[in-house]
Recover the amino acids of this structure.
């Protein structure tokens, strides 16, 4: 019993221990399950919260058409809370549009049958919301066999953005197509290079420029538009543009369709790393620019030759150009002008040179001139009166580029001429009215234009008649009754027509009925008019008659004087011949032997007789040979000159003179009277010998040219005074070598008379104390 009791106790203890262990294990398992349940609940709550906050909502459509739709998705779809089946997707005005509901239902059924996923965009009725529904067969874990899991996204904002982006893409595509069309239609070559600077695209103009078949061929072969591709070639500008991220422009020559052209190449970096480029043909521009440069240089060269000063200012109001007259006019130094001074500085420099008008407020005056650059009329003209009497006409012309062109014309001479002209007109009017002559100016049409008071007074015309500018015919009719012979009035129109039409001067004389006499003439004027003049010659006619009578009396007296002198000369020859003969007989000893003193007296008598005979011959020559023609023949002028020198040599020797003879071979021969030409040389030598003191020098020089011969006689005597030189060739009024008046000096008048008879000239040059020079020029023929 005891054993059984112990066994029972052991068994009970074991069972109890097992129960305790089992309870502990169950407690442990329960606590772990509780912890896992709590974690599952927390995870479920977290997942539920995530699903509620997710941008996509999930729904499950079971195989029997039942839907598990969360409230948020039901709200998006516009479904009522009682909607539980696919048929509930569209109820009247609730839920989806019928077409969208049918399409979505079809997609779900296809997914259930074929397991094909889908995406469908739907819109709830009466709402602007757009939903994107993605569907696929539901996983087994969902617990909906044969069901479909739906994910709905609210794409309202995305749809708007998509629409906007679609529109933007369409616009961009249109712009790209338009730009592509523009690039293709562009007349200038255009291209695009990739980041490696190799050609990726070219337009039609590029293809035509390089004479390729198409753009693909150009890109494939890498045909460059500009020669010398590589370093220093067209790739250099593209590389700089790509690396510097700045557009580059450079000019290079190229051969386009066989013609050498100058291109301006533009390389523009793109954000993609590539470089776009285009080339502008500037060959014509370069030629035009070169032509403009040559034109500007030619224009500036021409402006330098103008008398007017020209200065050009640029749009920045700096001096661009000025010509030489401007620099001289305003005393501008070249080195100062090289700095392109501004307009105001130029005005200040003009003021410093005293070449501006005197003004009180120079700053205000200068500010007014600055307005020339913006003058609305384009051109401004002023007249500057400078100190010293200079008058400048200033023209300021605005230029299209905003600059200014100034022209300075020195009109001082024109102003002076105009002033002188006004003065001359006043003087002419005053002169006309105060002239002793009567004056009238007739125009080319025969009308009287100008007249003086003398013309009106002579004919007694009224001022109204002359103010009507009568024609010359009417004028002649008005003066006819006042003439002694009225028909002589017809001569006035003839003279005026001759002066205006034939441009010939004619004149005549007319007598008035009151006994006055007038000399008139019509003179052609440079302007085509005729000047008609009338001069009262009544007194001069009387004086002329008196002078004519006196002249006739004087001529008669001169003839009587000449005859008397000739007769006296002939009468004097007889006693002179007797005196000479008896003196020679005495000298020969016919009356007995003479003493030495008596011989001296006889020689003195003979010398005086010779001198008196020579004087008588000269007087006879003067009185008998005036107007007498010389006997012309061939004369050896050199021999004639030497013969005359031989005749005068003893006289020079007796006075102790140095007598020099120079006869050149060029003297030659002339046409003339040998005797008279010898007398000319003798008279010149006698004059030189007589005017030279003892120990002096007399020179006879003869030479000639092909057209004339020359004889020169000079001495170093006392010379002649200015008055003596003036009358040296007058008959019976010669002057001695000492300047004193001689009793009778006929050698030089006779020499001139003979020289002029041969068609030659004679000149005398002398000064007191400087000797005398006589030059005779004779023509060969």
């Amino acid at each position: 019993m005891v054993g059984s009791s112990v066994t029972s106790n052991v068994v009970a203890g074991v069972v109890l221990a097992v129960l305790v262990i089992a309870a502990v294990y169950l407690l442990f398992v329960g606590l772990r399950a509780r912890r896992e349940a709590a974690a599952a609940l927390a995870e479920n709550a977290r997942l539920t919260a995530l699903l509620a906050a997710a941008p996509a909502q999930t729904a499950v459509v079971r195989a029997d058409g039942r839907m598990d739709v969360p409230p948020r998705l039901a709200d998006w779809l516009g479904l009522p809370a009682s909607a539980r089946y696919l048929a509930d997707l569209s109820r009247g005005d609730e839920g989806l549009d019928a077409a969208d509901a049918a399409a979505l239902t079809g997609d779900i059924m296809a997914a259930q049958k074929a397991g094909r996923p889908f995406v469908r965009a739907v819109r709830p009725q009466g709402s602007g919301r757009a939903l994107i529904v993605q569907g696929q067969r539901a996983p087994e874990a969902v617990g909906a066999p044969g069901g479909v899991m739906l994910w709905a996204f609210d794409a309202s904002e995305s749809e708007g953005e998509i629409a906007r982006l679609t529109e933007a893409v369409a616009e961009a595509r249109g712009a790209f197509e338009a730009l592509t069309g523009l690039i293709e239609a562009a007349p200038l070559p255009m291209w695009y290079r990739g980041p490696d600077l190799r050609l990726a695209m070219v337009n039609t103009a590029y293809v035509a420029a390089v004479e390729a078949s198409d753009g693909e061929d150009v890109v494939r072969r890498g045909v460059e538009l500009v020669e010398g591709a590589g370093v220093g070639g067209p790739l250099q500008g593209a590389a700089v543009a790509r690396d510097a991220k700045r557009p580059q422009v450079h000019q290079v020559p190229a051969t386009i369709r066989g013609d050498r052209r100058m291109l301006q190449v533009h390389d523009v970096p793109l954000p993609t790393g590539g470089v776009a480029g285009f080339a502008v043909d500037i060959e014509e521009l370069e030629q035009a620019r070169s032509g403009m440069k040559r034109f500007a240089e030619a224009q500036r060269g021409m402006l330098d030759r103008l008398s007017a000063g020209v200065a050009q200012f640029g749009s920045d109001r700096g001096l661009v150009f000025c010509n030489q007259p401007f620099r001289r006019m305003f005393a501008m130094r070249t080195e100062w002008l090289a700095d392109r001074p501004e307009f105001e500085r130029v005005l200040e420099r003009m003021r410093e040179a005293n070449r501006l008008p005197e003004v009180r407020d120079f700053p205000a005056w200068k500010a007014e001139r600055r307005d020339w650059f913006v003058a609305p009329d384009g051109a401004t003209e002023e007249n500057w009166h400078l100190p010293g009497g200079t008058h400048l006409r200033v023209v300021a012309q605005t230029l299209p580029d905003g600059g200014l062109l100034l022209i300075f014309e020195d009109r001082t001479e024109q102003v002076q001429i105009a002033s002188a002209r006004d003065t001359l007109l006043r003087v002419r009017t005053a002169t006309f009215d105060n002239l002793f002559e009567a004056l009238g100016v007739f125009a080319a049409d025969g009308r009287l234009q100008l007249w003086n008071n003398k013309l009106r007074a002579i004919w007694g015309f009224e001022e109204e008649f002359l103010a009507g500018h009568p024609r010359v015919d009417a004028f002649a009719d008005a003066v006819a009754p006042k003439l002694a012979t009225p028909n002589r009035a017809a001569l006035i129109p003839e003279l005026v027509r001759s002066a205006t039409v034939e441009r010939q001067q004619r004149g005549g004389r007319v007598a008035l009925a009151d006994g006055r006499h007038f000399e008139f003439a019509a003179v052609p004027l440079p302007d085509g008019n005729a000047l008609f003049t009338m001069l009262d010659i009544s007194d001069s006619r009387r004086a002329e008659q008196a002078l004519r009578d006196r002249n006739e009396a004087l001529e008669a007296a001169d003839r009587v004087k000449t005859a008397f002198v000739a007769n006296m000369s002939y009468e004097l020859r007889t006693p002179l011949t007797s005196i000479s003969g008896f003196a020679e007989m005495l000298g020969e000893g016919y009356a007995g032997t003479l003493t030495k003193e008596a011989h001296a007296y006889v020689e003195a008598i003979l010398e005086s007789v010779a001198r008196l005979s020579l004087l008588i011959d000269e007087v006879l020559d003067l009185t008998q040979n005036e107007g007498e023609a010389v006997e012309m023949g061939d004369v050896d002028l050199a021999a004639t000159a030497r013969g005359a020198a031989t005749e005068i040599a003893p006289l020079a020797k007796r006075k102790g003179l140095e007598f020099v003879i120079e006869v050149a071979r060029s003297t030659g021969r002339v046409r003339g009277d040998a005797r008279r030409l010898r007398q000319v040389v003798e008279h010149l030598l006698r004059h030189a010998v007589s005017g030279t003191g003892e120990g002096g020098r007399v020179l006879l020089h003869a030479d000639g040219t092909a057209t004339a011969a020359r004889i020169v006689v000079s001495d170093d005597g006392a010379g002649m005074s200015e008055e003596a030189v003036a009358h040296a060739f007058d008959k019976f009024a010669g002057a001695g070598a000492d300047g004193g008046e001689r009793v009778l000096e006929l050698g030089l008048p006779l020499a001139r008379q003979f020289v002029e008879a041969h068609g030659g000239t004679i000149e005398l040059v002398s000064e007191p104390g400087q000797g005398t020079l006589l030059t005779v020029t004779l023509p060969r023929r």
